[in-house]
Amino acid sequence: MLKVLESLNRVHFRHIVWVLAISETLHNIEEAIWLPAWSHTAGMWHPSVTAFEFRFAVIAITLLFYGVIWYFSRYGTKASRYLLGGALVIILFNVFIPHLIATIALSQYAPGAISGILFNIPVTLYLLRRGMREGFFTPRELVLGTIVFTVVAGTLLPVSFAVGRLIDSLA
Fold first, then answer.
1. Burial level of 18, CB count in 10 A (0-12/13-18/19+)?
2. pLDDT in tens, 58-78
3. Cα 80 from Cα 64, distance rounded (Å)
């Protein structure tokens, strides 16, 4: 494990962030496969969704993450640091709410919990810690970035679900 971390630490931070794209893609694939069926029994934890509607929205949010990662790795601007930091915090938070809390509250597995634990927690914690250590993020930037990213993603998700639902209803 130590050798893996040493190898990762040799890669420039603006390039290693692409590991986030891999972990979030794996997480979103797990959700895309199992969450639509689970949503019909999830009650308050997730609205009931069709497979197409959910997959459309999860593709949209995955593309948002890719865009933020690309923007940061390409330009490394202050705005890109805010967005990436906010995305990291939101991805980490998402493992706990709804995935782990829903798994406990419902006494049944909430899709996304395993990939969140195996991939998203270690990757986001590594990137947050390293980004702060190397001066890419400050606590203040992470707070502001989380607010900005929440607004962006919080706008994109309902629109994506609505568009997915509309397309699904026309099919």
1. middle
2. 999 999 999 999 999 999 999
3. 13
- Residue 5 confidence (pLDDT): 77
Task: Tell me the whole-structure pTM to 2 decimals.
Answer: 0.94
Total Cβ atoms within 10 A of residue 22: 11
Q: List all residues 6 or more positions away from 17 whose beta carbon is below 8 Å from its beta carbon.
A: 69, 72, 73, 84, 127
Distance CA 14, CA 74 (A): 8
Question: How far apart, in whole angstroms, are the C-alpha atoms of residue 92 and residue 120?
Answer: 6
How many CB atoms neighbour CB 133 within 10 A? 11
Residues in the chain: 171
Taking the CA atoms of the chain, what radius of gyration do you get in angstroms? 17
Q: How far is CA 8 from CA 11, 80, 123, in A?
A: 5, 21, 11
- Residue located via tokens 């890719």: 66
pLDDT value for 146 = 98
